[in-house]
Specification:
four-stranded antiparallel β-sheet, single chain, alpha+beta
Length: about 70
């Protein structure tokens, strides 16, 4: 099991968190996504480490921006 934490900008509400969670869970191997809207933190648990490009693409698809990964 692998756990990674990312920072996502632009999220302001529960709907934002749901959108990001929905997109990230489409990445193969993702088991759990936890979003803290206030801090912008997104913690992803997966079977193995995820490629940053995959996470960035999912966050972008949801309409937000991944910072620093």
């Amino acid at each position: 099991m692998s756990e990674s934490t990312y920072t996502v900008t632009g999220m302001t509400c529960g709907h934002c968190a749901d959108s990001v969670t929905e997109e990230i869970t489409t990445i193969a191997g993702v088991q759990k996504v936890e979003v803290d809207v206030e801090s912008g933190r997104v913690t992803v648990s997966s079977e193995s480490p995820l490629a940053a490009e995959d996470v960035r693409a999912a966050v972008t698809e949801a309409g937000y921006e991944l910072v620093g990964a």
